[in-house]
Amino acid sequence: MKLYTYYRSSAAYRVRIAMNLKGIEYDSQAVSLLDKVHKSAPYLQANPQGLVPALELDDGSVVGQSTAILEYLEETHCNTPLLPADPAHRAQVRSLANTIACDIHPLNNLRIQHYLRDELGADKSQVDQWYARWIHTGFGSIEKELGQGNGSFCFDDAPGMADCYLIPQVYNAIRFNVDIDQYAAILSVYNHCNTLEAFQRAHPDQQADCPSS
Amino acid sequence: MKLYTYYRSSAAYRVRIAMNLKGIEYDSQAVSLLDKVHKSAPYLQANPQGLVPALELDDGSVVGQSTAILEYLEETHCNTPLLPADPAHRAQVRSLANTIACDIHPLNNLRIQHYLRDELGADKSQVDQWYARWIHTGFGSIEKELGQGNGSFCFDDAPGMADCYLIPQVYNAIRFNVDIDQYAAILSVYNHCNTLEAFQRAHPDQQADCPSS
């Protein structure tokens, strides 16, 4: 399988973590969002959605959207499950993941920041406030849910699907200087997951397309 | 099961369609977003995320996030599957659904419109342009994918998970006067699904909390 990725894309970061946790070997093809390679004709041919990540399967078909990719990996590589067995527990994990995937990340990605700045005339402070608002709104409810956990992972005692979403989102919050000190349970999970090799290898700084690597 | 719903919430609309397609009986409890009931203490007690929809299971636990709810229903009510059997096809359907759930809907919901207006000083025309931009960006890629289909449903020849997302999103686009005449494949699926009773009963106008009903 080939993963179209970009080192700083937090949706790609989710998939890299899941691939590593499941021990799936894959080829990486970097798609620079900064250089707008995701809008180039060859990439749009492969993935008409024009976004990263996308996963090219062995039959040549391409799956876009990180959540669809993660569910696909879960269904086809069952040895290391990232969802618990009980449907109600699975729903709880997916709900956490979707709070990030739907209620935080889409509001803060690069194209939105550009729109706010270029088309609505927002200044840097207004863009920063926008960014922080959706982090705080989402993290507020996630913190309550994680507060009932053991501080190591989002659910139970093994890394799972919600951790694949949370760790990249915390990384983003830190990168954009959002003060998240109040979220003790979230930070505990973040710090614990980052002691694991699967998360470390998926980190933006460890990617071949990271300028400093 | 009890569904916390709001007639115009397009995420709740998705769940209502799925419940109807699967023939699941449920109680509805209306949560008025207009009256900010979703931010009231009793509702936050039930669903700390403070959003609709949420599904209260028979054991009293509450699942938030429409995507988590739909996956839960798919896993627990298998008689009328909303996802195809083949993992690559399932990924294709989920990718379509997530384009709406992540790349269109979160950018256009009420809290975002309020933020643009109240905190960034956007006027009505700017909010309308914002709204239309994300519809067109998402519908552009969805139209390409649906153009390869049969014009009745998003995937194959039965209503499925992607239709649960698409029909409410088209309803929203029409309600906000976005010109979507160019999306022939999307409109074909929209019109066909709306001939089915499961979609008709889930429509905002048919809900008990709809002011005109």
Describe the 3D structure:
Two copies of one chain form a homodimer. With 213 residues, chain A is α+β, with helices and mostly antiparallel strands. The first copy, chain A, has two domains: 2-80, Glutaredoxin, CATH 3.40.30; 87-198, Glutathione S-transferase Yfyf (Class Pi), Chain A, domain 2. Chain A is 54% helix and 7% strand. Chain A contains ten helices and four strands; from the N terminus they run βαβαββαααααααα. Chain A has a four-stranded mixed β-sheet, covered by helices on one side. In chain A, helix 1 runs parallel beside helix 3 (66-76), helix 1 runs antiparallel to helix 8 and helix 4 (87-103) runs parallel beside helix 8 (161-175). The longest helix of chain A has 23 residues, at 124-146. The model of chain A has no long low-confidence stretch (mean pLDDT 95). The interface between A and B is large, with 46 and 47 residues.
